[in-house]
Design goal:
The structure is a single chain. This protein has about 850 residues and is of the alpha+beta class. It is about 20% helix and about 25% strand. The strands form 12 sheets. It has a 6-stranded mixed sheet, sandwiched between helices. It starts with a strand and ends in a 19-residue tail after the last helix.
Length: about 850
């Protein structure tokens, strides 16, 4: 950060404690000698912003003191500047103190600066009111030195006041900031705004030279970002004539603050400035025309401290080197600092970037549930950037996918940081502070942003576009999987072994009369056929149809104009009215966020209709296998939603329900893309063969568990098997059976996924899916869970409770056995 150079042997032999004072006296004598050689500015002299006398020059004309008008401003400053350079670089400007704050003195063209006959320097406005004065004893004259120091000099030849004693943001060769006066150099707010900026350098009375971030419009100092660490030993900050800026200690040691190089004062203009970005830089400017042409007539920074402001500033309070929600970048080759906004953020003010950045989108509402949040927002990585503060939550151990999810579903979370080494996730909320970009940032930083607005993304996100572009199968088109050559085998198997799925394992028990007429039925509305005919406009708009019946879209005539889906059941078993009521009651008693809710029913004559809540985003089949690939995070949420819905049916509702027909057509998506299982409990209402599906032995397998073809009973494990197939489809974003694929090895997804898992090539399953590849560990975990679900032996398959735990990462997943023959015992 800085270097320490010892004096020459001759300097070492000097008394250490005499050295600083001798140097100070020498510089003072040089200054006074130079002042005495000048043409003195006599009492009564004056300057005006416009007119023949706007400034007082040094003898060589290198410096000027007077009025200048900063580019792009309507006001004038009173200052000192390099007069022979085209840009007239300002090195000092007058400040007034109001309410404890220093502000630059800005005056109009009618103002007047006068060295009064009483020996006072006074700046007055057009009304004659004094707006600035040094408030020092009377002077005999004033002088502008070739060192850049403007002085008021007393009768004895000693300065009564000088600009070197009250620096602004710059120090010059021969300028000394001594110990004990708490000398402060404060940056400008901007290059073009001379207001006090956000950084200062102080020669503290305790002997320490320190650089602080400072609150805007305040004198409050945040945590120091650079210090000489010389408490009790520091003496003075010196910018000597050879171009060295160093901090002198009492023992004679010199700590180089910027550069140890030597630049001749006769060949170069020089300055050291605390720039608006907080970096203290030393600049040189060639005086000769030959060198000027090489340097394109500009100041050149030859050294600076700190070396990288982005890494140095770290405050607990305040924004850091750049504004809130932005991050700092430092180009070492150009010695340049830049503040940037993260993706989909923008600066409050493009010119005043220190004000920070704001989201260029509507922030996440805390009213969104998990699936809605996942549908609307995503986590996008930002390379080599970190905001080391602002943590409000921490998780460990955890994987990256879960870290992403936890931030997406949390409306307070704006950024998540994942440390792969420690398996730790940090949540951060706005405003973000101390942002910096650096190659040594090893953690994965993820910014929450809205999902893309492209047409493909709209297909995934916007329910309006889904409504416009296509119709949906609201309650699933059928309980069939489609026909195949094995239909008769299935029918015979079911008839032989009397195996069927009931809405309830216990539904064979007689229902008590109190239940059939009691409060448990009050949650369901009993509709008349006439009501449903009006609601569906005569059953006009068909949403889908299948073996179990036809689904129509409708709208109730209630105060909310509730949209509904009406399923007209067909080919019912010859049940009595009482049995129908029992089964409907069981369906109506199931309430879970991942189940489609039954609102009511109609039971008139031979008509049996079920009224469900309307699912505007259709089935998983249409969503997953369309041209637009759904985002990985949303597919993960669908998988978890289906698993939790099945867990409820199997273990948490009052009566165990086995669905028997889990497939994408029977998984629906609400307006927030939350997965909901449909058609649960219908098996008992339909003919036995309609709960079956047909499949081939090798190339045409679907979602049916192998035990459907064996002489064994049906348990909830048939749903676990079907879930395993769907889980693979969600991971790979393709159907289980795709006969048109050229590579025969990939035709059956369950076989191919098993082969890829065994060979350690999960990446082949998600080839071309950037999000899934980014979350390859979670993809591998999901595939392992799916392979456990696909075990041929039902007892080897996990329960849905175990499945949800494995998906959530709550338990370890052992290596699944190789399910080499899923349905090998088919006749």
């Amino acid at each position: 950060m800085f270097s320490i150079s010892r004096s020459t042997k001759q300097e070492k032999d000097m008394a250490p404690h005499l050295f600083p004072w001798c140097l100070l006296q020498l510089l003072l004598l040089l200054s006074i000698s130079s002042a005495q050689a000048q043409v003195n500015i006599t009492l009564g002299s004056s300057l005006t912003p416009q007119g023949p006398n706007t400034s007082w020059l040094s003898p060589s004309g290198d410096f000027a003191f007077g009025f200048l008008k900063p580019e792009g401003n309507s006001f004038y400053l009173l200052g000192v500047w390099f007069n022979k350079i085209p840009d007239q670089t300002v090195v000092w400007y007058a400040k007034s103190n109001s309410d404890g704050l220093d502000t630059p003195v800005q005056v109009s063209s009618s103002s007047v600066l006068q060295l009064t006959k009483e020996g006072l320097l006074s700046l007055r406005d057009q009304s004659g009111n004094e707006v600035w004065s040094p408030r020092v004893p009377s002077a005999d004259y004033a002088t502008m030195l070739d060192t850049g120091d403007f002085m008021l000099v007393g009768a004895d030849g000693t300065p009564t006041w000088e600009t070197f004693d009250v620096p602004a943001d710059t120090i010059l060769p021969t300028q000394v900031l001594p110990l004990g006066q708490d000398k402060v150099v404060r940056s400008r707010l901007l290059t073009t705004d001379y207001s006090d900026g956000r950084f200062l350098l102080a020669v503290q009375s305790d002997g320490n030279l320190v650089m602080y971030p400072v609150a805007e419009n305040s004198t409050f100092r945040y945590t120091a970002y650079w210090a000489s660490n010389t408490v009790g030993n520091g003496s003075q900050l010196v910018f000597n004539e050879t171009g060295r800026v160093y901090f002198a200690l009492k023992n004679g040691t010199q700590i180089n603050i910027t550069s140890a190089e030597v630049y001749s004062k006769s060949d170069f203009f020089q300055l050291a400035r605390l720039d608006s970005d907080g970096v203290f830089r030393q600049y040189v400017y060639p005086k000769s025309s030959n060198t000027r042409s090489q340097w394109s007539l500009q100041w050149k920074a030859v050294s600076s401290i700190p070396q990288n402001i982005c890494r140095s500033v770290l405050v607990k309070v305040g924004s850091g080197a750049c504004g809130f929600n932005s991050y700092c970048t430092f180009d070492g080759t150009k010695n340049q600092t830049t503040c940037m906004c993260p993706e989909q953020y923008k600066f409050f003010d493009e010119e005043r970037k220190y004000k920070g950045c704001r989201p260029d989108f509507v922030p996440q509402s805390c009213d969104l549930d998990e699936v809605a949040a996942s549908a609307q927002f995503e986590m996008t990585p930002i390379d080599n950037v970190d905001w080391p503060q602002s943590d409000y939550e921490q998780y460990s151990p955890i994987d990256e996918t879960e870290c992403r999810r936890l931030c997406v579903v949390d409306c307070f979370c704006a950024t998540a940081v994942f440390d792969a080494n420690s398996q730790t996730c940090y949540k951060k909320k706005l405003p973000l502070s101390n942002g910096n970009m650096a190659d040594n940032v090893q953690r994965t930083v993820l910014i929450k942003v809205p999902r893309s607005n492209t047409s493909e993304s709209q297909l995934r996100i916007s329910s309006n576009k889904w409504k416009k572009d296509r119709k949906y199968w609201i309650l699933g088109s059928s309980l069939f999987f489609g026909s195949s050559v094995l239909v008769n085998i299935l029918l015979i198997s079911i008839l032989l072994f009397g195996t069927y799925c009931g809405i309830s394992i216990h539904s064979k028990k007689k229902i008590q009369s109190s239940q059939s007429s009691g409060s448990s039925l009050l949650a369901l509305k009993i509709f008349t056929l006439n009501e449903l005919e009006k609601a569906t406009d005569g059953f006009r708009e068909v949403l889908g149809s299948g073996a179990s019946g036809t689904v129509y879209k409708g709208q109730l005539q209630d105060e909310h104009a509730t949209s509904i889906a009406v399923k007209k059941l067909e080919k019912l078993q010859q049940e009595t009215e009482k049995e129908f009521m029992v089964e409907v009651q069981t369906i109506g008693q199931t309430f879970h966020k991942n189940l489609v809710r039954l609102l009511g029913f109609c039971n008139e004559g031979t008509d049996r209709l079920l009224v469900y809540e309307f699912m505007p985003n259709g089935s998983l089949d249409g969503f997953l296998f369309s041209d637009a690939q759904p985002h990985w995070s949303l597919r993960v949420q669908v998988a978890l939603g289906v698993a939790r819905g099945l867990l409820y049916l199997h273990e948490e509702c009052s009566k165990q329900i086995i669905h028997c027909d889990i497939k994408p057509q029977n998984i629906l998506l609400d307006d927030n893309f939350m997965a909901k299982i449909a058609d649960f409990g219908l098996a008992k209402l339909l003919r036995a063969n309609q709960t079956q599906t047909n499949t081939g032995i090798r190339g045409t397998r679907g979602y049916v568990a192998p035990e459907w073809f064996k002489n064994i009973g049906i348990t909830s494990k048939v749903d676990v098997y079907s879930f395993g197939v769907i889980l693979l489809e969600l991971v790979c974003c393709r159907k289980n059976v795709e006969l048109e694929i050229a590579d025969e090895e990939r035709t059956i997804l369950t076989y191919w996924a098993n082969d890829c898992y065994r060979s350690g090539r999960i990446d082949l399953l998600v080839d071309g899916d950037e999000e899934a590849n980014f979350n390859i560990k979670k993809a591998e975990r999901f595939v392992a869970v799916a392979l456990w679900c696909l075990q041929e032996e039902p007892t080897m398959r996990p329960t849905m409770l175990k499945v949800t735990q494995m998906l959530d990462g709550a338990v370890q997943i052992p290596m699944p056995p190789d399910p080499s023959s899923f349905i090998s015992s088919l006749p």
